[in-house]
Amino acid sequence: MPFPISAERVSVMINANRLLKHLQELSQIGRNALTGGINRFSFTPEEQQAIELVTSYMEEAGMTITVDAVGNVIGTYGEGSETVMLGSHIDTVPEGGKYDGALGVLAAIEVVQTIHEQQLSLSKKIEVVAFKDEEGTRFGFGLIGSRAMAGLLTYEHLQKTDASGISIGEAMKQSQISPVLLEKIKRNDIQAYLEMHVEQGRVLENEELPVGIVTGIAAPLWLEVTVTGVSEHAGATPMPIRKDALAAASEMILAIEQMLNDRTDSVTTVGKLIVEPNGVNVIPGRVTFTIDIRDIDEQIISTLESSILRQMQKIAERRKVTLKTKMMQRVKPTKTDPMLQQQLANSIEKQGVRPYSLISGAGHDAMNIAAVAPIGMLFVRSKDGISHNPLEFSSDEDIMIATNIFYDTVAGLTK
Ligand code: GLV
Ligand code: MN
Ligand code: MN
Ligand code: MN
């Protein structure tokens, strides 16, 4: 049920039309005209164009802009030794939607612009951050900007390469982001970090609520698996003597799904598969696939990882193929700060909405920032829970309600 907003309930309102216009403009960058999917990957011309647009919005909102050594774009508003940071990301998955990440950055800018227009005097400065590469699309390794700010990005990480062999470090140099001084990026001055994001699930929709308060964020472990068999003639090789890498990988993928079948919180996904040599009349000799394992509990993730590896090894031995696994990325699950949860709950109540708490199945930059600051997250209802898909949708009204709540919390924290 949509919630009616009355002037008595909300004394200051953000400019919803401006925010929706910004969201629409940003969604045109990297948009595939055929599918409507958005493709903005790190250190590409599309991402650069998005950065320039977002930077112009930040300037319009009265912020000064800096770019740190990994390419995080930071808009600073006001002065003071203490910082309240707001952020999210503007990169996308392949064929992504228009709200994931983008909404959080643009809503944060809208909050600052409203504060600017209201000429509120602040005791703390506000920083709005568009973090570098949250999704991990290009390098199979994500959350680059937030890792760096939390002191969790290493020089070894910068060696990770994209499909054409370009490393993160090289991509940075090509973008004139150099020298990379990782030690200098780590922040110890953030009093609070807040992120607004679309839920990407169906919980709020089922509860008929426009927003929710995140209590914890499940974290991903990504593995790359290579199965090697023998590539042979599809007509001349009898079935019993084949070492078919794709048949073996298929059995592994189904076994992983089977292992998680009766779980609700833990999830695993095989989302990427490369078959070589990929010919109609050639037995697949090598298959590379990825596994994404998530839970809110780190111990459960580790237990799942070992059972999956054991199960795959058994299948490999029986099918006489070889198995190699490589860790792509591991992130720590996190809890959000109880005080910030309460502040968000107060702002939600002021709007006459029932405060409701839920966990995040998706990963967010907030989970890294949790290593250096208290974090809070506000979720906005997603339609049918669809995300990482061009059909991703949150209503204009929900966005307006959420951003007004976000404004109220930020204004309260920086008073
Ligand atoms: C990206 O959105 C992720 O949660 O993996
Ligand atoms: Mn996101
Ligand atoms: Mn995403
Ligand atoms: Mn994410």
TrEMBL record:
Source lineage: Bacteria, Bacillati, Bacillota, Bacilli, Bacillales
GO molecular function, one term: metal ion binding
Stored InterPro entries: Amidase_Cbmase, ArgE/DapE_CS, Bact_exopeptidase_dim_dom, Peptidase_M20, Peptidase_M20_dimer
Family, per entry: Belongs to the peptidase M20 family.
PROSITE patterns: ARGE_DAPE_CPG2_1
Binding annotation for Zn(2+) 2: D100, E135, H388
SUPFAM superfamilies for the chain: Bacterial exopeptidase dimerisation domain, Zn-dependent exopeptidases
Known partners and oligomeric status: Homodimer.
Gene3D superfamilies, per the entry: 3.30.70.360, Zn peptidases (3.40.630.10)
Record keywords: Hydrolase, Manganese, Metal-binding, Zinc
Highest taxon of the lineage: Bacteria
Protein name as annotated: Allantoate deiminase
Presence of keyword Nucleotide-binding: no
CDD domains tied to this protein: M20_bAS
Cofactor binding: number and manner: Binds 2 Zn(2+) ions per subunit.
Domain Peptidase M20 dimerisation: 221-317
Binding-site residues, Zn(2+) 1: H89, D100, H197
Cofactors that this protein relies on: Mn(2+); Zn(2+)
Cytoplasm among keywords: no
